[in-house]
Amino acid sequence: MFRLRPVQARWFEIYVPHEQTVRTTEILARTGVVELETDPRLAEGPDTQRLGFFIRRGRELIARHQDDLPPARKRPGALVGNPVHLANQALHRLRVWSARLDFLQEQLAERQGERDDLLYLDEALRAMRRDGVDPDGLFNQTRFLCKCLFVCPKTSRLETVALAGPTVLVVAGPRHDFRILLGLADDRALIQQLVVDQGCDQIGIPPWLTGDLDNRIRQLHARLRQVEREISALEGEARALRIDPAIAAARADLDTLSWYLDQAARHLGVQEICHVTGWTTAEDPERLQATLWAAGIKVVARFPDPPLAAAPPVTTLQSWWAQPFRPLLLLWGTPDRKEVDPSGLLALLVPLLFGYMFPDLGHGLLLVLFVLILGKRWPEIRFLLPCGLSAMAFGLVFGDAFGFDDLIPALWLKPLDAPLIVLAVPLAFGVGLLILGLVFAGFEAKWNDELAPWLAMDLAVLVLYVALLTALAWPPALGIAALALVHFTIGTLWQCRHQGLAALMGALGRLLYSLFELLLNTLSFARVGAFALAHAALSHTVMTLAAGMENPLAWWLVVILGNLFAIVLEGLVVFVQTTRLVLFEFFVHFLRAEGRLFRPVAGPAARGNGRCG
What whole-number distance in Å separates Cα of residue 263 and Cα of residue 256? Predict the structure, then answer.
């Protein structure tokens, strides 16, 4: 996968017992994503008192909601950040989650209770309609009478002798018996006690039930549907809370911190463990810890902020197709995390430039065979494989194979037949490449929080360069160049408003230098076409010399020696020119190379870049 920026390594810390230190470093080395480095800071243990407080509170919430939380992990996870901060953050998330879940459960219980009452009422009203009981007046509240509706099991036997003349109305439903008791208001408590003793429950009568029985049943069903919708929504939200990944992560963090507090943090101040530190490019922080646990080393990997004095290393593109060209990048330097990583672009630029300057089907084939035969012994020459393939492709384009320009037809043209076109194509390619370099500088300005100065000044340089080149074919583009110059002037005055006109004069001088440099860089790409023409001329010279030989053996000798001379000399010169064009014409516009290359520990012989205690 192509990426525009290098990957910055992450600082890690692992605390292991003395006897497992060597094995730990060996296992970390085998991962291929670890660079060991001694921590320049003193080993500072976390605030175990605060950490323990947060963990205890978190454990209480976990125990309280054990059935509602995601299951615990089989092993602790990696600690990405400060342990105390992580514990406080996890506890806060759990508290918010717990309060919301409690509220939902209360609302759900209330709605479910209302639904049960509505279902009882529906059964009672249907039984009244069947028996011809008129509820008019029975459900109306008064200040002097106790009107109570009870739902009772079929087995209940309600005794009313203790009541002073209550009126009992019994309605038998399909599943329950319903009793409506009317008595004095002072008898309410006694009525409720007697009925509850028989296993009955009182049903609240909603004041909004009005009209005849049919109308009351319709009102009840409408309310029942609304309650069902509310219950469904509450249950859905509760289910979402129970599988919330943020809460699962909070519980995992607390489980890890609890293990860390018990197993490691309390021992940081005594000479019982070793402190293994360094950098890793593992995309998943869990990878290091999972590898160690799989080997039986039960530790917790921490990923805190790196030491202030440490320079984080970076890794450039590691794909198989980009790796052969990394030495070219390292000739210039290593980009840091806020620079463009051109590793992937090199895999395209170098073969294109090389092939255009060395266009020969036969010579490219020999380069490919050379790499296939000796590439395993000398991995450094693998970059010649795509270069050879590109040379073969351009050999077909220009119709050249071992210097025989009439052996295969040209897919495009013969270089000596149209030299201006051969020169113009790489010039246009160079213009596009230089524009890309200036755009890359804009990306880097944004990453470094310097976008405003770039937009004010450097963008004007880019527009001015493009406009001046366009004016060669379309003169009205000079108007755009003038606007770009005005933009540069205004932007410079704004950026240097505290330095006066002297800053503007200096900026204009740098502008002229930049344009002159871009012009020279552009003309440098003409050498790409020049070398293509030189190759065609050399091939023509060799074949002309061979044609003058009357002896067939001499003819073959001239052809073979001439081709060998062309392969060695041109191959070397073309590679040097390709490197120069990429490094000094392209990289110079955006690559400062202020980074440090990540160099992973390799092999099981890695030993102790750790500190004990």
Answer: 10
